[in-house]
Amino acid sequence: MSEANRRMILNLVLSNAGSHRGAWRHPSTKLEDIHDLHHFLRLARKAEAARLDSLFIADGLSIEVKAVQHGPIFGYEPLTLLSSIATVTERIGLIATVSTSFTEPYNLARGFASLDHISGGRAGWNMVTTGVDRTAANFGLEHLPSHAERYKKAREFAEVVLKLWGSWETDALVQDRASGVYADADKVHDIFHEGPYFSVRGALNIMRSPQGRPLLVQAGSSEEGKDLAAEYAELIFTIQRTFEEGQHFYADIKARTAKAGRSPDSLKVLPGLHVVVGATEAEAQEKARELRGLGSIERSLMSLSNMLGIDFSGYSLDDLFPKLPEPGEANAYQSFHKMVKAVVDQRPVTIREVLEKYWVGNGDLNIAGTAEQVADVMEHWFRNGAADGFNVMPQLNGDTDLFLDLVVPELQRRGLFPEAYAGRTLRENLGLEPVL
Amino acid sequence: MSEANRRMILNLVLSNAGSHRGAWRHPSTKLEDIHDLHHFLRLARKAEAARLDSLFIADGLSIEVKAVQHGPIFGYEPLTLLSSIATVTERIGLIATVSTSFTEPYNLARGFASLDHISGGRAGWNMVTTGVDRTAANFGLEHLPSHAERYKKAREFAEVVLKLWGSWETDALVQDRASGVYADADKVHDIFHEGPYFSVRGALNIMRSPQGRPLLVQAGSSEEGKDLAAEYAELIFTIQRTFEEGQHFYADIKARTAKAGRSPDSLKVLPGLHVVVGATEAEAQEKARELRGLGSIERSLMSLSNMLGIDFSGYSLDDLFPKLPEPGEANAYQSFHKMVKAVVDQRPVTIREVLEKYWVGNGDLNIAGTAEQVADVMEHWFRNGAADGFNVMPQLNGDTDLFLDLVVPELQRRGLFPEAYAGRTLRENLGLEPVL
Is Ion transport one of the keywords (chains A, B) (predicted)? Predict the structure, then answer.
């Protein structure tokens, strides 16, 4: 794609009260909205009116009981919530996270094909392998399989899903009343997949969906995660803390995509963007300061513990951060582990320091400012090889309106973001090749 | 419940073109409706306007490639479709079939809790064990586990699901901004389930749903199926061919429910009702005759083969029906096997005879007539200990409107069916005890 035609991709990440853990306590949050379906439907319609590309739902398959005291859990199962949202929207993409470790490829392929039919071609699957060890215990296992094992299985899982989505040819339907032929059985195929992890005969019990196949999205930034994305995905979501890290990651992904035999343009890199928007810089900074005061450091420690696979229960917050094993030895979120390890290997820091200074919103790119200031940062990343767009996470849901009303038009004025949807399906709207 | 307060329960079974396999070929069917979401949304709203209790979606997890030529497959995954329907309806119940043999209890419990939240308390789970052997091959198995094994697993599956639905107490939410306490961690419980089939730690990653727990429905009529229903279910769907068989089944179920320590009223018996409605009897009979001419006997044979677990490929339709094994020896739909066995053991019959005479719409109760005639049969079954209501299956989707516009008001005139919904949740509307 020539630089002139290039345009930013923007997804909105749905959350109960905002991406900041303390957002539910902020006075601008209506407590009755936090779990209300209609609140999510309203956000979805508003995001569509602003022409956002997709809504995105992150997901996990376990909770830690003691964590519930610190803030809301999302709760809604992504495919059901997005099916509801699909019914009151027409153009916006709908991306759900589902793990390859705890479901069957036949069920997953069918669920996403169903959402793609329900939405008229707007479904996307964010494939994750699940990195939180306690999840294993909800599915009959003591521990998660190793990182390498999970990714080997994920790769075969994706293969099976793609075969199932392709098991009905586009023109299989005949519907000839006179002869009584409903569909052409020669255009529906068993897949007879046999692999180390899965044996699946097929065919899928749902016709080919409007997009040919739903969008593939990947959200892990380990070596295996990046390779999986380079081979299969159309979008990659990533956590990048600084512009330089973002540039490095971007170049790495594009190179891997080329190496996998695909055009580097065919995989779009979308860093997470935690954002606070204000009418003035002072207002934005004040909101960010308020939010910092509302977070629970104990809750952040629990998350850190889950993501690193380390038990901090014997430590106090002012103890020095323990030495982290080499990435290959830790069964954790590899890329996150690497980031924290870089910080703690540099000089002695306390656990509190890591939580407060280096780990805001899981370490993602983080901006508080006016619409213009936010757009400046986004443009800088976009124009200088660090992003094809962003997974937007308003730190406060109240800021979603500000982002949509102020930042999006500013990006449109700068010619960075389109004014209207190009088509009906998510693939059409993203300018991706149709899958026939 | 006293006989005076007793009222009929009516569910509408969703289908592409009607419950008759030839319905798609009937001139009253619009081919473009068959797979259209908006067609299902329209049916749902119309059924709600007529005050039907629930919509019901049957389901399977495999297709036979050569079957697709004979008629539509439903396709939509039930939880996603019902989440869409939930968004445009307010009162009608939403019952989805999901198998206990090919999913994880944690995922299932979460999916139904999510639908219950999305619908404001209208979700029901129809638990089945899957009896079609070829399904096994879509999930890494050569064959289905035995009937007995599947039901043992289903029972433990239901136990786990109930524990997970109960893992959040009703008043766990606190939402105290000042203290920063979001939920009371003492009111959210890991379940630590350990059994022969499942090991699940819990808690569920979604708050308690509006119904406390979604409705439990059971649809198998084998000995094990009936016992499972008697112990857990609130509705049982069944296939009954004659009034006498219906009475016998009804008495059997109520006795088993009492034996399980529950009030016989707490489990409602709903036979399937294949119905053709006409303005006159002649019109209804003519439609029924047209439909018989549109069915494919080859397709019926495939279904028979799947349900009995018998390969008919070496037979011609005019061969004598082969001898069936004793029920305990067949890994098939046990109750269906028993019904067909009773016919073929009585006297020699050809395969064609069984398909044409004894097996219309899987053998269910089957009526073609005026609204009054249809209501007469329903009243007879309802008043004389054969049914608490019906799972209504219009043989032609065009007849759904006739059923809703003519039969339902006739039942209301007779005082058999209520005029308005009693509450907001499915449990309230069915007059069932709340689950706190």
Answer: no
Write the pLDDT tens digit of every residue in B314-336: 888 889 888 888 876 666 677 77
Residues 6+ positions from B313 with CB-CB distance below 8 Å: none
pLDDT digits (tens, 9 = 90+) for A250-271: 999 999 999 999 999 999 999 9
Whether residue B183 contacts residue B172, with contact meaning beta carbons closer than 8 Å, is answered with yes
Q: Choosing among A15, A73, A83, which should be mutated to test the B contact, i.e. which has the most B CBs within 10 A?
A: A83
Q: Is the dihedral of CA B45, B50, B52, B56 positive or negative?
A: negative
Tell whether A328 is covered by a domain: no
Which among B237, B184, B229, B298 has a CA at the least distance from the CA of B53? B237
A102 CB neighbours in chain B (<8 A) are 104, 106-107
Helix axes of A78-87 and A37-49: crossing angle, nearest 10 degrees = 60
Please give, rounded to a whole number of angstroms, the shortest distance from the CA of B259 to a CA of chain A. 33
Measure A393 CA to nearest chain B CA, in Å: 21
Average pLDDT over residues A358-378: 80
* pLDDT reading at B77 higher than 50: yes
Contact yes or no for B182 and A104 at CB 8 A: no
B277 SS3 class: strand
Q: Do A41 and B87 touch (CB under 8 A)?
A: yes
Mode of pairing for the β-strands spanning B93-99 and B123-128: parallel
Residue B264 pLDDT exceeds 70: yes
Cβ distance B202 to A104 less than 8 Å, yes or no, reads no
In which band, very low, low, confident or very high, does the pLDDT at B362 lie, cut at 50, 70 and 90?
very low
Of A24, A140, A180, which is closest to B25 when you measure between CB atoms? A180
**Tens digit of each residue's pLDDT (9 = 90 or more) over B100-156:** 999 999 999 999 999 999 999 999 999 999 989 999 999 999 999 999 999 999 999
Confidence band (pLDDT; 50, 70, 90) for A332?
low
User: Does a structural domain hold residue A316?
Assistant: no
SS (H, E, C) B278-322: CCCHHHHHHHHHHHHHHCCHHHHHHHHHHHHCCCCCCCCCCCECC
Nearest CA in chain B to A198: B140
Please give the residue range of the domain that contains residue B416.
9-283+365-430
> Which chain A residue has its CA at the smallest distance from B294's CA?
A180
Across the interface, whether the CB atoms of A206 and B75 are under 8 A apart is answered yes
**Phi and psi of B282, rounded to 5°?**
-60, -40
Interface test with A, best of B138, B161, B297 (most A CBs within 10 A): B138
B contacts of A79 (beta carbons < 8 Å): 77, 79-80, 83, 111
In total, how many domains does chain B have? 1
Contacts of residue B263, defined as CB under 8 A and 6 or more positions apart, other chains included, come to B257
Crossing angle of helices B334-346 and B223-232, in 10° steps, is: 140
* Closest chain A C-alpha to B382 CA, distance in angstroms: 36
Chain A residues with CB inside 8 Å of B62's CB? 201, 205
CA B325 – CA B347 distance, rounded (Å): 16
- Say if the Cβ atoms of A207 and B70 lie within 8 Å: no
Stated pTM of the model? 0.94
CATH number at residue A56: 3.20.20.30
Classify residue B333: in a domain, yes or no.
Answer: no
Across chain A, mean pLDDT equals 92
| DSSP secondary structure letters along A348-409 | --BHHHIIIII-SGGG-EEEEE-HHHHHHHHHHHHHTTS-SEEEEEESSTHHHHHIIIIIHH
Assign A331 a pLDDT band (cuts: 50, 70, 90). Answer: low
Tell me whether residue B251 is in a domain: yes
The secondary structure of residue A188, as a DSSP letter, is B
C-alpha distance from B129 to closest chain A C-alpha (Å): 15
Please state the ipTM of this predicted complex. 0.94
Residue B368 and residue B375: Cα distance in Å, rounded? 11
Find the CB nearest B87 among A88, A114, A188: A88
